[in-house]
Structures are given as C-alpha cells and as structure tokens.
Fold this sequence. Notes:
Layout: H1 3-22, H2 26-32, H3 37-62, H4 67-87, H5 91-104, H6 107-118, H7 124-138, H8 142-152, H9 155-173, H10 197-214, H11 220-226, H12 232-254, H13 263-281, H14 284-294, H15 297-309, H16 318-346, H17 350-367
Helix pairs in contact: 1-7, 1-8, 1-9, 3-5, 3-6, 3-16, 4-5, 4-6, 4-9, 6-16, 7-12, 7-15, 8-9, 8-12, 10-16, 10-17, 12-14, 12-15, 13-14, 13-15, 13-17, 15-16
Amino acid sequence: MNRDIRLIGLALFLWGVGEGLFFYIQPLYIEQLGANPAQVGGVLSLMGLAAALAYIPTGYLSDRLPRKPVLLGGWLLGFLAVLISALARSWQALAPGLILYGLSAYCIPVINAYLATAARGENLERVFTATFAAHTAGTVLSPTVGGLLAEALSMRAVYLISAVLFALSTATVLGISPQQPAEKRNRQGGWRLVLTPRFLRFAGPVLLTFFSMYLLFPLAPNFLADVRGLSTARVGALGSVYAVGTTLLSLALGRLRGEPRAWGLFLGQGLVWASAALLLWAPGMAGAALAFFLRGAYQACRALTQARAGNLLGEARRGLSLGATETVIAAAQVLAPAAAGWLYVVHPVWPFLAALALVPAGAVLTAALPGDGAI
C-alpha cells in the first residue's frame, strides 16, 4: 500500500476511535433524551436517509472534481455534527446533528474511489477491507471507554472528546495527495448508467442482503439493556468486541477468493445470521459478546460489496458506481431501523426473528452475484 492509502487508513483509525466512543451507545442516548423505541428507530432512519440522498451526487461529482476537497468536506461536516449532538437537550434537538452526521458519510464512496484509483484498480478486495479495518481497529477500545465515560461524566462529554479526535483525523486527510478524476472523454453515459438492467441486477440482491442483516443493529443495545439487563458500560464493551470482530473478519473474508461466486459475502452473511441467533438464545454476557463479534462480518460484507462494484461501470465512472452501491446499502439502513423499531414495539425479539428469516434469502442471491464487469 502506498503513502496515500496509509494516510487514509490512519485518518479512518482516528475517526474510528472518536466514533466508537459514542456510536454503540447512541441509541441509549436518544432514549435518555426522551425518545421511545419507535422514535429511536425513526431518528436513526433519518440519519441513514441523509446519507442515502448524498451518495450518488457526490459519487458522480467525484468523477468530475478533485477528490481531496470533496473528502475534506465530509470530514468537516462530521466534526460539526458531533458538536451539535453534544449540545442537544432533547431527542428532537439531537436529530439535526444526526442528520448532518449522516450527510458526512457522503465521502464513503469518494474514499473508495480514491483508494481504487490509488491502488490502480488492483486487489480491491484487500485494499478496501484492510483500509476500512483500520477504522474498526480504532473502535476496539473506544466503545468500552465511551461507556465508562458516559457513566462517570455524561454523554455530552463523550461527544466533545470525539470532536477532538475528529479534528485530528481531519488534519491527517490534509496530508494526502490531490487526485484528479478521469478525462471527460472516458465518462460517457452519465448517471443514467445506474438505471440500466446491468446495474439493477447487482443492486437488487444488495438491497435485500443489507436490509436483512441491518435489522439486528439499531435496537440491539436497547434489547440488551431492557431485556437482558446489561449496564451501559457493558453495552459499550460489546462495541469493542464488535470492533475486534469487524477487524479480524474483514481481513479474513477479504482474502477469500471464489470467482465467479461471492463466497466472502456468502460466508459473512452466515456469520451475521449466527449473531442474531446468539442474541436471542445465548445467555449472559458471554453469549452477547460472541454475537457482537460475529456481527462484525457485516462491515466486511459492505467492503466486499464495494470492491465488487469498484470496476462495475468502468474506471471513469468508478465514483458513480461506488456512490450508487453505497446508496443501495444506505437505503437498506434507512428502512431497517424503522422496521426494527416498529417490530420491537410489538415484541423485543421480533427484529431478530425477522433477520433470521430474511438473511438466508439474501445469502442465496448474493452467492449468485457475478464478478466485476460481468453483469
């Protein structure tokens, strides 16, 4: 990996440390500010919606504008969002901060496009999984620290500490090399390419796959606190276990080869399915810890899906392809929290039962995905 890829990895590591302090106990913070489970799911859906609306436009622009300024804009937006969240006094006041944080995620497809170009389009599975594993490596200890800080100080103090780490991450991004998009003559077709049958045959299975897996995420902390009786500190510690699982499983699944079948994605979904089963039926902290470790395969599946999309529409339209794929994943992450919130109101186990039913269907479709450029 060259210098620019390593700097992106370091910036993501620092961001992961800051994000890990609050992200895994954020649903509890929303609840503390007066929201019920359906409202928690709704607010988290708004955050996902904000990201989903930004992915395609910014991916499209990253094929036309210098990528470094676009990346810096996302980093700065996330920094501002954390400050707003720290000042919130109600869940309604927190919502704008969460929406801005969702918007800051627009730089994910731009990061992927930058990495793919820096790597010259080669070994994208390893480049994507290893670089984003740096982000999750940053969250190994910070969720535990965040839970302890929240109990000893306050959630607002946690967000302020995160803001400092986000500032350091932003300073790191300043050190990467500028990167120009491909020449205009190589960008024929425009954004309408994402509406072609070629791309839609890829997008459909991806939508179902990530919707079914993400049903596990939004209210798992609430389930463990409300039903299993775990403390905030212990829920935060599970975030650290999740980070370890994400880091190790991303590196392992990123090394799997199996064209034309997506074996890494297939196996990753199986691990997430096992995580749902453990959350429901494995007793105590040990069962919850194993469940959170295995659900780390979700982020590996995300990176592997982006790696497959990296060359889907060609190098000149890489940002568009990655932005559109991230939009599909974000759409799943918009729909799943709302669905999980309503299911949780009916009965706390229902979101996990729904995931157990749907994940196998997504896995079957994912196993049949063709390789890059073959759709």
